[in-house]
Design goal:
The protein contains 8 helices and 38 strands. The protein is mostly beta strands.
């Protein structure tokens, strides 16, 4: 009989203990314990949902980020943060971190850091390019005329300038002399302009620059000390968009632009440098990097690579841009092999952006693309012979990507218009297929296991898919306007992932329901190529921060 009072006392003690323990966001902590938890709040909103909280250990190259839940709480899983001192930072548009900005993680018990936010001292530094475009006055045509500025820098650099209309003209002429791979830490000058679009006369170029200059002078600080328009922001993540963990890896140098990031079957992460003759591989557990020098085919030409894809054996292939060729990196021997354009097709104007070797085992041929002439190429690896295909007469629209299906037919995406196209591998017949959306601008994409073509409609602001078996398209518009998907990839679950080039958001599409979840990235990220690692469960999404010299891993929590 004496045992009953003891049991009742013990139950009462446990009940009090349970209610005293702070609840953890289940989606962040997972099934294990948490290393760091806390509440994020502000005097304006109280507890805040959708705040990204990042922790970076002192001396480390790796930062981990989680997102607050509907109660304003966050939790870092114990297996993500080793013991030691960490710097804390946040992303919540309109707010700065008031404190604390540091915490020490202990191996003995979870740490707690309740974060207080205050109104941002300077909101303009926090705006994405989409938010700048939404804020600016002007017609859609005027706004779209400056989208290209974001290839090299954010629009804040543009809007904070003080050039008047006349002052803008020499600036625009100078900017036009840089290739897209140039950015402030590493500018490069163009050797020659593209010729695929037809003659680009000085008079025609000046007329376009005059229109741009007139518009730019209305949206910057040339006439007033402050912008004459309201700075508009996008809402923070909510619900499913908060159920995610990010890991960001710093690369060895500020000049690294990891345009493409792909992951092999062993989990090794590979990246290329958009403006340098470099590729690298990274251990995602330690962040340790090993880099390799890509051969130079044309001394004096612009450096850097763009498209990077695996062949069947997961050797790494590269489009060598202004070097005028493609390269294969054998992972076993760690040696490069290159193929250069034939002399009659070569020149300073060429720009080999894309290569698709994934089905080259079918017939021994590899597809590539030249952005200088807006043509497609196919090389026989055994003979070295290269064929050229021109789907359009000059002046041609910009053909941006080339893909290979299971039979090694070549598919291409026409960013300068609204077409996808097919080149029959056996006959060479070219077929052009217009998308439902006029002027959609298909940019980059992939072909899934069912030979369906997925692509980002970079100018139409949609995710697109074409099924050759049924001859039908499907298109989906992301919730955030002016997201301008650059690339799309499909995963093993039948979902599709896209990257918003302007709004730092990753779109996850369920084609069956049409639902799109938008995950906000921890920092401003110039999103280009997107990649999904299907070997993990749930799948893992990867993207390079093209202007941030880092690689971002996104893990949805399901």
């Amino acid at each position: 009989m004496r045992a009953r009072p003891v049991v009742l006392v013990l139950l009462a003690f446990l009940t009090v203990l349970i209610f005293q323990v702070r609840p953890l966001p289940v989606h962040a902590a997972g099934d294990g314990a948490a290393a760091l938890t806390g509440l994020v709040s502000s005097s304006e909103e109280g507890p805040m949902e959708g705040v990204l909280v990042s922790a970076k250990k002192t001396g480390s190259t790796i930062a981990v980020t989680v997102v607050t839940d509907e109660k304003g709480r966050y939790a870092f899983p114990a297996n993500r943060l080793d013991p030691g001192p960490y710097a804390l930072s946040i992303r919540a548009v309109g707010y700065d971190l008031s404190g604390p900005s540091a915490v020490t993680i202990s191996a003995q018990k979870p740490a707690t850091a309740d974060l207080k936010l205050k109104k941002a001292a300077d909101l303009s530094w926090q705006l994405t390019n989409t938010e700048w475009i939404n804020s600016m006055p002007g017609t859609p045509q005027q706004k779209s005329s400056i989208y290209g500025c974001t290839h090299c820098h954010t629009l804040r650099l543009t809007t904070q300038s003080r050039h008047n209309e006349a002052g803008w003209l020499p600036v625009l002429e100078r900017m036009a002399s840089y290739p897209p791979l140039a950015f402030p830490p590493m500018p490069q000058k163009l050797k020659a302009r593209r010729i695929g679009g037809g003659p680009d006369t000085p008079e025609r170029r000046l007329a376009g620059q005059q229109r741009q200059a007139a518009y730019l002078a209305t949206i910057n600080l040339s006439a007033t000390p402050k912008w004459g328009y309201e700075l508009k922001t996008l809402p923070r993540p909510k619900g499913k968009a908060t159920k995610v963990i990010y890991t960001e890896y710093d690369l060895p140098a500020r000049t690294r632009q990891p345009h493409d990031v792909i992951v092999d079957k062993q989990g090794v992460v590979w990246y290329n440098a958009f403006g340098e003759q470099i590729i690298g591989k990274m251990d995602q557990k330690t962040g340790k990097v090993k880099e390799y020098t890509v051969p130079t085919l044309k001394p004096g030409a612009n450096t850097g690579t763009l498209g990077m894809r695996f062949d069947k054996d997961e050797n790494v292939w590269l489009g060598m841009q202004f070097q005028g060729g493609i390269a294969k990196f054998d992972k076993t021997t760690e040696k490069f092999q290159t193929w250069r354009l034939p002399a009659d097709l070569d020149g300073d104007h060429v720009q080999i952006n894309q290569v698709s070797p994934n089905a080259s085992h079918v017939d021994g041929k590899v597809w590539w693309q030249d952005a200088g002439t807006y043509t497609l190429l196919r090389t026989d690896l055994a003979t070295g012979k290269t064929e050229m295909f021109a789907p359009f007469p000059i002046p041609r629209p910009n053909i941006y990507d080339v893909l290979a299906d299971s039979q090694n037919n070549g598919w291409f995406l026409v960013m300068g218009a609204e077409h996808i196209g097919k080149i029959d591998a056996k006959t060479g017949k070219i077929t052009l297929i217009p998308t439902p959306t006029k002027g959609s601008g298909p940019r980059r994409g992939m072909i899934d296991e069912h030979d369906r073509v997925w692509f980002g409609e970079n100018r139409g602001g949609r995710i697109g898919m074409y099924d050759p078996k049924t001859g039908t398209f499907q298109e989906w518009a992301p919730p955030t306007a002016i997201s301008q998907p650059y690339d799309v990839t499909a995963d093993k679950n039948g979902e599709a992932w896209a990257g918003g080039e302007y709004n730092d958001r990753i779109q996850r599409l369920n084609p069956k329901t049409g639902e799109i979840i938008e995950y906000l990235l921890p920092k401003q990220t110039n999103v280009r190529r997107v990649f999904v690692d299907n070997k993990t469960t749930p799948v893992t999404f990867w993207v390079g921060s093209n202007h941030g010299a880092s690689i971002v891993k996104l893990e949805p929590i399901e």
